[in-house]
Design goal:
alpha+beta; two-stranded parallel ribbon; elongated
Length: about 425
């Protein structure tokens, strides 16, 4: 029946996605409230940290699409600085600039190479504004955007799968808790019946109508019924704790009552129909498909390294030792082409292809597992309906036997056993 619940959870998912986005006030449960399965699922989707974390993670991955697209938009950057520095000439000395030596080697104007050194710094000003715009490549940047889009789709599918897992978990624990509650009612009735039987046996034994052993037997049955009731109470409390956990409640979970909805329906359709529906609805299969598409987009990116990339660049700068500074402008087209990179591109393409093939094999394995789960759930569904029918007949026959046995005992024609 557990896999049947998983299949049913897939069908419920789309409806409860809308319910889960309701206001927080509507997602609370009042003490003593009648809790339906729909409300329990709504609470789980709204409150459970696992679902919230998955949705936030999906949103985070979705932002990477915008990051990838930003590389196709104009890039504007600026710089401004003031530097107080001496301008002593260094003659024909040569050196490697580590990044913080501000003077270019050479001799300053209007002084000889062996001129005296000064220690009074002068003013230096620099300001620059640059811009670049991607014009064209052979698929690297657009392929990167596609990769991020497929990764975002895969992350959303993973979030949906986690929501489905929560729906399945809540559904399973809801019915388990409801079944535990029904068992407790049965054992409470059993205790009441055993108490009544003990009273009848005691009265009849005192009147000499039945032997004293009937009293001892009734006492033992009453004690056994109370132990069974205690076990049922423990199962009910454990079941409530499990359902509270599935709905995202902690120690402050309120008290509530479940709506009795232990019903069943006849089978409609066949295994093939349910399998086809599962292939369309299962987000874990969609997640692997999107991951495979992302690998295909990577191949497009890597192939672009066989061709050049074209960018437009422009800039303005003002540099000088006083104001107004000297102004300069530049504009042009920049073409870059990785002519040889040690066969890195070929290996990158091969890696992406093998990874994509591995994902395709994972999809095939998952499709086989989905068919197994659907077939097992369908067979369990059939067996459960037949079991319910047989159990109903057994209960009816048992009630008739109990009624006859009670009448025989009351008439003194039978013993308490």
């Amino acid at each position: 029946m557990s896999k049947l619940c998983m299949s049913a959870a897939i069908a419920l998912f789309i409806s409860f996605q809308i319910i889960a986005r309701s206001a927080h006030a509507q997602s609370l449960i009042e003490p003593g409230e009648q809790l339906t399965l729909e409300k329990a699922i709504q609470l789980a989707l709204h409150n459970h940290p696992r679902g919230l974390a998955a949705r936030d993670e999906a949103s985070s991955v979705g932002e990477r699409v915008g990051e990838a697209r930003s590389a196709m938009l104009p890039q504007v950057y600026g710089s401004g600085q003031y530097l107080a520095a001496t301008d002593n000439g260094v003659g024909d000395a040569s050196f490697l600039n580590p990044g913080y030596i501000p003077r270019i080697p050479g001799t300053t104007h209007d002084r000889s190479a062996d001129a005296s050194q000064g220690f009074v710094p002068g003013n230096n000003y620099a300001m620059a504004l640059g811009a670049s715009q991607f014009l064209f490549d052979f698929g690297r940047r657009r392929g990167f955007v596609k990769e991020r889009e497929f990764e975002s789709d895969a992350s959303r599918a993973d979030s949906k799968f986690i929501d489905l897992s929560l729906i399945y978990e809540v559904t399973q624990r809801y019915f388990a808790f409801l079944a535990d509650h029904q068992k407790l009612i049965v054992y409470e009735k059993a205790v009441a019946q055993r108490e009544e039987q003990l009273h009848d046996a005691d009265v009849k034994a005192n009147a000499g109508l039945v032997p004293q052993v009937d009293v001892y037997t009734a006492q033992a049955e009453l004690a056994r019924a109370k132990v069974q009731r205690l076990d049922a109470q423990n199962l009910e409390q454990t079941g409530k704790a499990a359902l509270d956990n599935s709905m995202g409640f902690g120690a402050s979970a309120p008290d509530y009552k479940l709506v009795d909805m232990l019903t069943y329906h006849p089978i409609n359709g066949d295994v093939t129909q349910y399998y086809v529906a599962a292939l369309k609805l299962r987000p874990d299969l969609s997640e692997i498909e999107d991951q495979a598409r992302a690998e295909g987009a990577k191949i497009t990116q890597y192939r672009s390294d066989f061709f050049p990339t074209v960018n437009a660049v422009a800039g303005y700068n003002a540099v000088g030792t006083n104001t107004p500074a000297t102004n300069n402008y530049d504009a042009g087209i920049m073409i870059s082409w990785p002519i040889f990179n040690g066969f890195e591109t070929e290996h990158q393409i091969a890696e992406a292809r093998f990874h994509r093939e591995a994902l395709h094999h994972q999809m095939q394995a998952l499709e086989q597992r989905i068919y197994f789960e659907v077939k097992s759930a369908f067979l369990n569904w059939q067996a459960s309906l037949e079991r319910i029918h047989r159990t109903e007949l057994t209960v009816a026959a048992s009630r008739a036997r109990l009624e006859l046995a009670t009448k025989r005992y009351d008439a003194g024609l039978g013993n308490i056993i």
